[in-house]
Amino acid sequence: MRTAFLGAYGYGNLGDELCLIEALQSFPTADAHAFSVNPGWTLRCVPGLAGCFPDGEAMLALNPARIVFGGGMFGVVDAFRYWMPFLARAMQAGAAIHFHNLGVAWLLKDRSWLDATAHQVFANLASLSVRDPLSAERLAEAGLARLPRLTFFPETGIAPDPDLAEALLGPRRPGAPTLLGLSIIPSPTMRACLTHDAPRVRAVLAEFAGHAVVPIVSTVHIDSVEEDDLTGAADFIREFLPDAPIAAPLLLDRSHWQAEMTPRRLKGLIARCDVLVTQRKHNAIHAIGAGVRVIGLHPLIDNSLRRTFVTLANDLPPGSRCVGLDEVPPPEPASE
Q: Locate the Polysaccharide pyruvyl transferase domain: which residues (predicted)?
């Protein structure tokens, strides 16, 4: 059965390709094609794909018998607006449409996409599932009567590939340094939080004095410097952990990351850590799946990581927690 997989693939976020690996396991097929803006990268990260396509018309030209719409935080207005007409045409041609493991954003800021075509697609889906309870609420808020099934981030179960970790960190051995995995997004909001709430960050890190740092880089976005975890990790280490030894400095090399990193290799690295401090939700998901203690560090105003911890609360390794950071308060108004 030819199946087309739709998601935010090829942008340089290994969390999205991780979701594609899970979708392929949930919807097995010998003829799988995925949307991607960077086919070579997606094909390297996700074994088992027969090919990639660049847009909706190219997808329809494949004449898929099944379409799986998912892949991380793909339940957003822009994705719904673009893909709904193509999904409707594929459905009319006989394709089964599955909305799978969706992360759904707040949809009420723009309801123009939720037209008769979109309602028709939702009403006739072969299946509908979301990854967390808040995503289900978002669909209900939009006026969709159909309730989705909850998947609870099934990508936690994807098996790690230990080869890169063993090559860079060596085999596990008695007396080896304890390892602190670190993943930070260098967005302006996070930078402001790290400046304003630096004492809280240092208090979190105090427990891990003496650990060697493993830079965990899951995103080097093709379009956004604000989504470059290489920069985020390097800047954070320089500011908060300047004296900590770095295990496997090659993990901060951009060309190495582009050539070698995959979702399962990333999980293999996280599985070697004694604890992970992360702002990236899919790195937290890797840690939880591998039984590694995880501390979420994120801006309070962003619920992405928090909703992940809440959804997987029953599976958190002991000592795991989510730490919210405040931004710099707004300036006081000038006195007259």
A: 13-297
